[in-house]
């Protein structure tokens, strides 16, 4: 079973790089599109859209930024590979995935409403779908670390010297028996 846990760790690194590139594209396209919307250029040939476009752009930008925060925490966890870094990486990845799922919902609504959608808007929609799937895989891999006995909380191998503490850190300093106890 040790191979399964090591395989998860080996998959998270490349997945973080893929998610970084996807988040970079999402933030870039969503930022450009919001700038055009603020300037009143909805009729730009690469933009277009319908009433749900502005909501989708806002949530896409939020999803991209939260994705970067999640990736930062994920890189720290990959480096440390401890239970405390796992907790922060899991929580941020779940929040980031949830916001991306909301942006995906607005993408679906935008497609259903139809109308002219320019190249960059369709590209942004595609990358939101890719981001949703890759972040979901990342969340699943992170949560898999919790349930695997060897790669769960603590990430350590314990031997008989631990006296059955099962992962509890204990200070093994010995007190001198000849020192009087203070009351």
Report strand %.
under 5%
Judging from the principal axes of the Cα atoms, what is the shape? elongated
Pattern of helices and strands: HHHH
The N- and C-terminal alpha carbons lie at a distance of: 51 Å
The helix fraction, in percent, is 55-70%
Number-wise, the strands total 0
- How many DSSP helices? 4
pLDDT average, as an integer? Answer: 81
Our Rg estimate from Cα atoms comes to: 23 Å
Class derived from helix and strand content? mainly alpha
Summarize the structure.
With 183 residues, this protein is an all-alpha fold. It has helices at 2-38, 53-80, 83-113, 119-147. The longest helix has 37 residues, at 2-38.
How does this structure look, described?
This protein is an all-alpha fold and 183 residues long. The protein has one domain (22-154). The protein is built from four helices and no strands. It has helices spanning 2-38, 53-80, 83-113, 119-147. Helix 1 (2-38) runs antiparallel to helix 4, helix 2 packs antiparallel against helix 3 (83-113) and helix 3 runs antiparallel to helix 4 (119-147). It is elongated. It starts with a helix and ends in a 36-residue tail after the last helix. Residues 162-171 have low confidence and may be disordered. This is Membrane protein PM19L-like. It comes from Ziziphus jujuba var. spinosa. Keywords: Membrane, Transmembrane, Transmembrane helix.
